[in-house]
Design goal:
Number of helices: 21
Number of strands: 4
Radius of gyration: 26 Å
Number of domains: 2
Strand content: 5-15%
Distance between the termini: 24 Å
Shape: elongated
Order of helices and strands: HHHEHEHEHHHEHHHHHHHHHHHHH
Mean pLDDT: 77
Largest sheet: 4 strands, mixed
Low-confidence stretches: 40-50, 134-138, 202-214
């Protein structure tokens, strides 16, 4: 009952700051619209034909290694690999033309594999083969007969960086049989990576046909930025606690016959309500304004929203008991929020990150929330086990953050 009174009091105070409330809802929607439109993937005619990153591959080598490279590229989620037919006559002029002419239309990147690609790789030393960081940056992709050109439209540094990273990761897998011939300790890894998917367009088209062909770009942007801005409540909670300390309200609450747990619950619940309202508005706006699908079982969004908001507000509580000044709230709060958002997949799909980064991302509640949203919004038959695990981990984060905040509150 005491916690409820504190909650109602704080909700009244929050409702008076209408500009902050509008920003909390309007800012994510504006950013979603701007970032989404700037990718150039929102037009319906492009979304109907593909999703994600489209890489055109011209394979002039026609070797096992070049096919492995294309296959591992196609294995990444949201990557489509299209083949350019190589002419038997005038192949040299076609090679020169493809290397220098930039792709257009819905092709994002063109990868040209030179005619001596595998032969060149076999001539490399074991040190060069097992150290891709030495091979490509120092001597360039041209040294191993690879050529990259990007779409003729305005340069997209993020897309170009992702394409280079995916090609580098695929190269590491494609090289394993060659490396195993020179370094026996890699034979086990080469055997495990023996089977590769069919690289060309028919496989990618089948993968794309099984999903909704609407504006799927928002299936990533809306949940990602929703999770990102839900955790931005941490800063608002920190400033709220500081204001209460400065005014002496928090001190009066602590000397009153109200338990510390009731005070903390009462201070946390208003922000959880605000978080749920923000998330609901963004999800409804995503469907009405951007054509986002809620998946085959929309009711599964409810536990995800509740658990994500609980994790965000508990983190805000813990941070509020640790921060002592306004500058600490601004500097450390933004540092924590932006770094965790970057590593968790809120800004770049986790499927495009290196394996180590994907594992590290699971140390953040953001990543588990995104996994749950992805399961509901993108799968034809969402797995209750995946959603249950994600929600359980989010509740674990919530409990940990709350207990640390409670300990710090009692120590102060």
């Amino acid at each position: 009952m005491d916690a409820l009174k504190i909650t109602l009091k704080d909700l009244t105070l929050l409702s008076r700051d209408r500009r902050a409330l509008v920003i909390l809802v309007a800012m994510p929607m504006v950013i979603i619209a701007i970032v989404g439109s700037s990718t150039g993937r929102l037009r319906a005619n492009r979304e109907q034909s593909r999703q994600g990153l489209t890489i055109e591959v011209a394979d002039f080598d026609q070797s096992e290694t070049s096919r492995r490279l294309a296959g591992f590229l196609a294995a990444y989620e949201n990557v489509m690999v299209r083949r350019t037919e190589v002419a038997t006559e005038n192949a040299e002029s076609q090679l020169t033309e493809l290397q220098h002419e930039r792709p257009s239309g819905d092709i994002d990147v063109r990868l040209v594999i030179g005619p001596t690609f595998e032969t060149t790789l076999r001539e490399l030393s074991p040190t060069d083969l097992t150290s891709p960081e030495q091979t490509t940056p120092e001597r360039g992709m041209e040294s191993i007969k690879l050529s990259l050109t990007f779409n003729e439209s305005a340069a997209d540094p993020m897309m170009e960086g992702l394409a280079k990273m995916l090609i580098k990761l695929s190269m590491q897998k494609a090289l394993l049989p060659i490396i195993a011939e020179k370094v026996p300790m890699f034979r086990g890894a080469a055997n495990r990576a023996k089977n590769i998917p069919e690289p060309w367009e028919n496989t990618a088209a089948a993968k794309s046909a099984s999903t909704d062909t609407g504006n799927r770009v928002y299936q990533f942007f809306i949940p990602s930025y929703t999770v990102l801005f839900v955790f931005f409540l941490v800063n608002i909670m920190g400033r709220s606690f500081l204001d209460e300390r400065d005014m002496g309200t928090l001190r009066r609450l602590r000397i009153s016959p109200i338990s510390a747990t009731s005070i903390l619950i009462g201070k946390t619940l208003p922000f959880m309500v605000l978080s749920l309202v923000q998330t609901s508005i963004l999800m409804i706006s995503g469907k009405l304004l951007f054509g986002m699908s809620w998946g085959p079982q929309p009711w599964l969004l409810i536990p995800i929203m509740l658990c994500t908001s609980a994790a965000a507000t508990s983190l805000g509580l813990m941070f509020s008991t640790l921060a002592k000044t306004e500058s600490q709230v601004s500097s450390f709060g933004n540092l924590i929020l932006l770094s965790s958002a970057g590593i968790s997949g809120c800004l770049v799909p986790r499927a495009w990150m290196p394996p180590l980064s994907q594992k590290i991302s699971l140390m953040t509640p953001h990543a588990w929330a995104l996994d749950a949203y992805s399961e509901v919004l993108t799968k034809d038959t969402p797995s209750l086990n995946v959603i249950g695990l994600s929600c359980g981990v989010l509740l674990g984060f919530s409990l940990f953050f709350f207990l640390v905040g409670q300990y710090r509150f009692r120590r102060d």
